[in-house]
Amino acid sequence: MTIQQLLFYGIATIVVASAAAVVLLRNPVRCALFLVLAFVASAGLWLMAQAEFLALILILVYVGAVMTLFLFVVMMLNIDMATKARSVRAYLPWVLIIVGALLGLFYLATGQGHMAFPQFTDVIWHGPTYSNTKALGEVLYTQYAYPFELAAVLLLIAIIAAISLAHRPTRQARKQDVRRQIQTKRDDCVRVVKMAPEKE
Amino acid sequence: MNELATLCLAIVLLPLAGSIIAGFFGQAIGRTWSHRVTIGLVAAAFLVSLWIAKLVFMGGMSFNGNIYTWASGGSVFPYAFHIGFLVDPLTAVMLMVVTFVSWLVHIYSIGYMVDDDGYQRFFSYISLFTFAMLMLVSANNFLQLFFGWEGVGLVSYLLIGFWFKRESAIAGGLKAFLVNRVGDFGLILGLAVILSYTGSLSYQDVFKQAPTLANTLITIIPGQSWSVVTVACILLFIGAMGKSAQVPLHVWLPESMEGPTPISALIHAATMVTAGVFMVARMSPLYEYSNTALSMVTIIGATGALFTGILALVMFDIKRVVAYSTLSQLGYMMVAMGVSAYPVGMFHLATHACFKALLFLAAGSVIIAMHHEQDMRKMGGLYKYMPITYVSSLIGTLALCALPPFAGFYSKDAIIEAAHFSSITGAHYAYWCVLIGAFVTAVYSFRAFFMTFHGEPRMDEKTRSHLRESPWVVTLPLVVLAIPSVIMGFLLAKPMLYAEPTVFGNAIFIAKSHTVMTSLTEEFHGVWAAIIHGMMTPTFWLVIAGIIVATICYVVKPGLPAMFAERFSVLYRILVNKYGFDEFNDKVIIRGTKAIGQGLFTVGDRIVIDGLVVNGSAWSVRAAALQARLGQTGYIFHYAMVMVVSLIALLSWLILG
Amino acid sequence: MIPITSYLVIGALLFGLGLVGIVINRKNVILLLMCVELLLLAVNTNFIAFTHFWGHVTGEVFVFFILTVAAAEAAIGLAIVMLWFRHRASIDVDEMNLLKG
After folding, report:
1. CA of C61, closest CA in chain B: separation in Å?
2. β-strand B224-227 against B217-221: which pairing, if any?
3. CA distance, residue A87 to nearest chain B CA (Å)
4. pLDDT per residue over C26-78, tens digit each?
5. Is residue B427 part of a domain?
6. Same domain for B588 and B542
7. Among C23, C96, C99, whose Cβ lies nearest the Cβ of B640?
8. Is the pTM value of this prediction over 0.95?
9. Of the residues B576, B609, B638, the one at which a domain ends
10. What is the pLDDT of residues B36-47, one digit of tens each?
11. In b/e form, how buried is each residue of B249-281, taking b as 16+ CB within 10 angstroms?
């Protein structure tokens, strides 16, 4: 067991465990925080795969922005925890079936007869002068320039959509118009009416 | 040759011109000019027909050609339709008969329709009829024949319903048209058979192919195959049954008496009803190859000849009697055609045209004098008041009874002898029918004669004081028609029937195996000898017996018929109901068709089409949608599950498949 | 070294856990969105693994775009949740069945 393997499997354990915690815990704030942990740990995994740019982007964008947003919403909505009884027992069979099916498929796909992945052990290991950022940038601004621009537009649309969805117009405050206030006359506001006196 | 074509074109177009002028401009030019124009043009047509006759009979010319190509399809529909004329002896005879009777009826109508509002319309219609009939007889292809056929049917409908404000006239016109239509259905099918098997509708092409067609078989009902010629001839004869009022499509002719008498004379005695007879004669090259069709013609003709004649014994309307007499004589003509004695049939057609038109016009003269009273029970003793009508009526009746030497004798006796000589199936039955029919003819014709002109006057005093002879425009045609009724047989029997060759020449084709005409010719020894010989046949004595019976019943002892009616009341009632043909048509055919229509409407339309198909498809869509919408539960969990399951299925298929 | 299968197994486990979370979660729609993020994380890990083994950066480009889209989607999804909460005062998933057919 090299250090690399130890590190890898340790971080992997953290990732899976926190993902499980997200699913199983009741308190939504804690679920969100465990999700943050999962993201951070998987960023570590990605670092080990020599994708350092993306790993850091994961932390900055995902954890820093998206999960923060999640936490804001969770806290704003002020959820009553007592009503959150989850019936895990009822859906256990479904769960087992799904997971079992997926794992089975996975095994079939990558097992000996099909794509023969276990043979793949040669990793393309880049040298110390390798800059993932540079490599990504070389491709992103040349070959994938159009998708890049489109992604920017998509983010713009998301901003506009989110704002227009959640925006509440400010209440119309009543403003004072001093000129009109001075110009009022008594006859506009008061009217004298003759009434017969009440009899006893 | 072109001379004949031009003449034929002229003879066809002259009455058409008259019809158009009287029809569209009749109100503008007034009554007198309307009748002058139409009569002048029809007279011109008659003169042209005489000229054509001279060219054909004396000069031996004939013409068969197309004047104008009306339509021709290319490769999609490889048939061509032309307008053309065939002028040969048969045509020439018919042209003369048609134009002659039409001319006389035109003149007669001046007197008959004098106080009618639709005067110009009447003349326009009878000229139009003349045009259509002339197109029919001069046609050289089946399509033109059909055009003329339909044209005469249309004008007949228009004229029967001429007094359209009368309910019975409209009904009569519709009945005539519809029954004709039933016959025309058969005719169209016959045309279709001919067109599909010969590729052409022209007479020349069809007749040339007749021998080969006789051997070609066609299977209509599986297991039964008939020769093409037989099928075509039977179908064509169904058309003739409708037009020439053979049993069972004869029911329209008595009701057609609702029209004015001149047209009864023109259309329903002399010309339109003889179109079927003419057609069979014209198609003799086809009919001779099919003994089955000939037998059918004979049997149906004979049945009509006898049984419709018997019906004339119980009718009281003078026009109905003459109508049933026409039905009977048409049967005689068809019998002649059926036994392959075509010239005899055509000769009877010509003589019958003369004396039957005469009888109708005389009846019309009586009706005018009696102020449009038609019931013979209210007539009697008219001979004192209307001598010319009386004499011409007597001549017509004698001709009808076939007493020598009048015209009817030569033609009718020849038919009876021809039936006797023939050996095809049904000829024996036909012989007995026409023989007994001679007796019946004598009885009913003299019955009508005596009831109308002899005996005690039975009309009321007011009518009797107004009785006088009809104006000259009415009696002139009577006299003119009486002349050929007397001498036509005498003069024309030999050339038309017995000469070798007959004037018809190549127009009529008789197969070698049908020897009726040759037997008749052998028996003929000259017109005088024929009279002597005729007095020795059973026919003659039957006719005399019939006259005696009529005299006894209606002159000597007028109470006798009433006693007979009471004794044989069942038989009498059958006869009065015309053998139940009208009831049958009404109850079975009309009600049956209505019931089928009703059934199709309620079941077919409402239940099947509206309910099942239209509403049903909408309902089934709705039902399916109602079921499908249960899948949209709204629960995200369900949607997620569906997505997951589909994902797993897709992956399984990709990996395992 | 670490075989690729390990990365793929991690990805599969994360994906499965995400699915399970969607299925058994009934009371909290925000949790649902978080499980969707888990799914996306699993896919991203897969892509990174393959990039590492094939050598060219196409996989990472894809991850880049997935991150972008995931961020946008999370934002809008949370906006919708908030609107729903304003009107219904509840984030119970079982109560969100207004699209019932």
Report:
1. 25
2. antiparallel
3. 13
4. 778 888 899 999 999 999 999 999 888 887 888 899 999 999 999 999 999 99
5. yes
6. no
7. C23
8. no
9. B576
10. 889 999 999 999
11. bbbbbbbbbbbbbbbbbbbbbbbbbbbbbbbbb
